Amino acid sequence: MESHTIERPEAPADREREIEDLRAENVAARDENAGLREAARASKLEIDALKSAQRQIAFLNQNLETRNRDLERLNKELEAFSYAVSHDLRSPLRIIHGFSEALKQSAAPKLSTEESNWLKKISDAAARMDRLTEDLLRLSRITRSQLKREAVDLALVAREVVHELRQGEPQRNVVFAISECPEVHADPVLMRVALSNLLGNAWKYTARRPQAVISFGMEEREDQAVFCVRDNGAGFDMAYASKLFAPFQRLHSAREFPGSGVGLACVARVVHKHGGHVWADARTGEGAAFFFTVPDTPNQAEDTNP
Fold first, then answer.
1. Which of 31, 169, 194, 216 could be bridged to 270 by S-S, CB 3.0 to 4.6 A?
2. What is the pLDDT of residue 277?
3. Sign of dihedral through CA atoms 25, 27, 30, 32?
4. Edge to edge, what strands does the sheet with 174-178 contain?
5. Residue 306: is its pLDDT beyond 70?
6. Domains (range + CATH), the chain
7. Cα–chain-centroid distance for residue 235?
């Protein structure tokens, strides 16, 4: 005798719950799909924006390389022009100066006081122009020179410069304080040019002090060696500090202190060729301090024209 299983129909409430659960799952799936589509659209937009940014960066880099090449070419042309002009000008200027001096000596009895003054102005102007052309040549030589790095004791170089300054004006009463410094890996000829100009400036601008004090040393700033030449001389207004290292820019008149305004430009070019930085701090009437850095390894330096 066969037995039969009788299936009982689901209760309406169970069926409705199952349908509601399926509907909720469908809604959740639709929401999830919508979210995924929105995320995909957002990702596509981000990818498109990234690609656009990369294309823009590539374009800017190419433009920058072109500008750098143009700038390098123009700098070389300018340096060549400065060298040629300053070199070629020296001969006629010296001729003017020489003949004006000869004329002044031979014709002195025949010249009036005013005429003698005119002749002196011609001679002085020619001599000043000759010094300016020599300064242009100095700048050009520094810029065009190739670095030859070796171990350099800057304190020893500073003492040699000081000895020369004392020999030039032995009557000066100047106290020098030269501190020992670690050696740097630099071009010895160019570093001597830099220190000669910095110490020479300090010597010049302390000339009116009854007791001049000039120091050179090194200090650590943020794990970096910073060298400093400091004096108690005339100082200057920091409002004009941006002009300090530009050629032929002076913060004092030639009547107060002689010079052409090229010394600090030479310092800046030497330091920049080594990949370093140079800056100053001062107060009018209270002296000045000039700081510079010299990266100790070649891969930190520019070794190029500034």
1. 194
2. 93
3. negative
4. 174-178, 212-221, 224-231, 288-292, 278-282
5. no
6. 8-144 (1.10.287.130), 150-300 (3.30.565.10)
7. 21
| Least-confidence region, from 153-157, 202-206, 220-224 | 220-224
pLDDT at 249 over 80: no
Count of alpha carbons within 13 angstroms of residue 121, beta-carbon side: 6
pLDDT digits (tens, 9 = 90+) for 127-167: 777 777 777 777 777 777 788 899 999 999 999 999 999 98
- Helices and strands in the chain, H and E counts: 5, 7
Task: Give the residue among 135, 152, 144 at the shortest CA–CA distance from 197.
Answer: 135
Which residues neighbour 104 within 8 Å (Cβ) at sequence distance 6 or greater?
A: 111, 116, 119, 120, 123
> What is the CB-side half-sphere exposure of residue 162 using CA atoms within 13 A?
17
**Whether the Cβ atoms of residue 135 and residue 260 lie closer than 8 Å to each other:** yes
How far is residue 106's CA from residue 172's CA, in Å, rounded to a whole number? 38
Q: Which structure tokens are listed for 107?
A: 């014709």
